[in-house]
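Anyone opening a protein record will find just a pair of labelled lines. A complete record is shown below as an example:
=====
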Amino acid sequence: MTTSEDLKSCDSEEAEVYRVPKTPVSVRVLLEGGSNLEGALHLTDGSPEHGGRERVVDLLERERRFVPLTLEKETRLLNTDRIAVVTVTHPTDAGLEGAALEVPIPEVPVTIEMAPNLGHPTTILGRMRLDLPLQRGRILDLLNGERKFVTVIGDREILLISKHYVSAIVQMNDAS
């Protein structure tokens, strides 16, 4: 049986062998109740779902109940079910690698009305990418899919929005 003394005597170099290398990625998080936090999520260099490093959207979509957010003076363990919006600056962190593809992916302008339990009325303007199979290319299909978060592209940032906190999405109809 391992005792606390055994653990204390463990060489830090030995422990370092088992550490998974992670890269901090700056984010802004809006929690249920309206708290805004700025900090870093820590992503692994390899993803089990795809080639390349883990993305913020990968971390949020996993079955983990809590994720660590490192702030300036502390680390908070956030319940992913209480995260309303995560703001990222790099398209890859939102899963938008397809922007580099030769085939254009349609984007639809939307206004998102967020649930009132965020502490204040919140409306988000942006564009949603319809990155779906051709037979399922509607916002409704995107919203009714299995993912917990949808991606909205703003003017200067990209938002990962929990569908749980969306009251309504307004999509403008074609004038034709």
Notes: The chain has one domain: 20-97+105-171.
